[in-house]
Amino acid sequence: MRIRVDRSRCSGHALCFGTAPQLFSVDDDGYSNVDELEVPAGLEEQAQRGMLACPERAISIDDAEFRSGDRR
Amino acid sequence: MSDASRCPEVDFDHHSPEFNADADGAWRRLRETSPVAWSEHHGGFWVVADYEGNHEVLKHHEVFTSERWPVDDGWGTSFIPKSVQGGITLPLEVDPPDHIAVRQLLNPLLSPAASEAMRPRVTHWTTKHIDAVIEAGECDLLYDITSPVPAHITLEWLGYPLEHAETTSSAFHDMLGYAPGTEGFDRGFENIGKTFEILVDTIAARRAEPRDDVISSLMTQELFGEPVDDDTILNMCIVLVGGGVDTTTSLTSSALVHLDRDRELRRRLVAEPELLGPATEEFLRMYPPLATIARTARQDTELRGCPVSAGDRVLVSRHSANFDAGQFENPDEFVADRFPNRHVSFGLGVHRCVGSHLARLMFREMLTQILERMPDYEIDQSALAPYPDRGFAQGWVRLPARFTPGSGGLA
């Protein structure tokens, strides 16, 4: 599973990091400093929670099963 | 512009007595019938009441600008109707690329780590203000705690002389809490004037003799290739004071009113303090201190199927978006551990509230200490009054309360 962060949409809420700190990382000002990352086995649910925490909807996951929690 | 056909058209005025008699109902009707609609009030404006509309407007600053466009007429753009005159506020009224330069100055001052570093001061001011009333067994939770605490934290950080802190916090509170033409409003207006004067004097004093505070630190920075001048600092200070002093007050006050009415939830928060993290987001969703924000269309465009013309003013309701059933299941229900909870109370896009991390910290500390030290507080519901005009900001005028007296001096 891969996570993609559209950094042009990131506005520094830092909620991905706040929700799943073992996966997401933000710079000193709270903006995402990753574009893409591979999710280690066992952290899929954390990845989904991090995605769903983003109010800007800047985070996507390439796995249909874990996209389903999204009500957009 | 005014003869272009705009539909649907609604008779909607977010400053009218009818709206303020039932703001939740007014937003619901709009959201459910015409989430984007044209109103002829206040010179004409589009009103956006749904969640997707908030995203479309707030995330596209190149189409829906915060700038004074096409010309700077001397009036601020954040409100409909335009009601505040003065210089361009930074970074509120500039879009990228200039906006990025201003935010680069401010972001480090209010980053997650910088906010966390302020935790000892947040604890200090909260403890001190509760100490002052804890033995009495009664206080006004607003004028004694939720208003002065964020004010002292913000103003101390800024470098503003604290002997004037309550002049400033009550200034913003009174102007929002009382209708124009009343004594309360006039007092607020007068104190806003004093706040400006004090800021001007403070900036001059720091220029002569810098200290370890935000005003002094801004003086050492550059903006657009020039050293930051005093007017620019004044301008940013106004935004930081305005953003810092009455907003967290309203959020915390609304949570205290909610917990006065829902004692079961209060017991749960006392028993399970870790619930306060997600519950903070739910309080933010249900009680956004700033209900609306305005933009101006910079070009002809279509918004959720509606024909928007260049120059049209657009009012976006964050409050209404937070109750959109398309985004939030059972939106009228308070769900302490709601997840996901992508409320838009801090805004979206480049203008996202720069103080959000500090705001959450202040809110949690005030709520935690109140629930620890006055867990049985009871608000005099008969004395409760919401802000008379909730078209822009929403909060409570005062919160007289009683509680079992405790002992002070814990600080």
Q: How is this structure best described in words?
A:
The complex is a heterodimer of chains A (72) and B (411). Chain A has 72 residues and is an alpha+beta fold. Chain A has one domain (2-67): Alpha-Beta Plaits (2-Layer Sandwich). Chain A contains 3 helices and 3 strands. Chain A is globular and about 30 Å long. The model of chain A has no long low-confidence stretch (mean pLDDT 92). Chain B contains 17 helices and 12 strands. In chain B, β8 and β9 form a beta hairpin. In chain B, α6 packs parallel to α17 (356-373) and α13 runs parallel beside α17 (356-373). The longest helix of chain B is centred in the middle third of the chain and has 26 residues, at 183-208. The radius of gyration of chain B is 21 Å and the shape is globular. The model of chain B has no long low-confidence stretch (mean pLDDT 95).
Set down the secondary structure blueprint:
The complex is a heterodimer of chains A (72) and B (411).
Chain A: E1 2-5, H1 15-19, E2 36-38, H2 44-53, E3 59-61, H3 64-67
Antiparallel strand pairs in A: 1-2, 1-3
Chain B: H1 17-21, H2 23-33, E1 36-39, E2 45-48, H3 51-58, E3 64-65, H4 98-106, H5 112-117, H6 119-134, E4 138-140, H7 141-146, H8 148-158, H9 165-177, H10 183-208, H11 214-219, E5 222-223, E6 226-227, H12 230-245, H13 247-261, H14 263-271, H15 276-286, E7 292-297, E8 301-303, E9 306-308, E10 313-317, H16 318-321, H17 356-373, E11 378-379, E12 400-402
Parallel strand pairs in B: 2-10
Antiparallel strand pairs in B: 1-2, 3-7, 4-12, 5-6, 7-10, 8-9, 11-12
Helix pairs in contact in B: 6-8, 6-17, 8-9, 8-12, 9-10, 10-12, 13-17
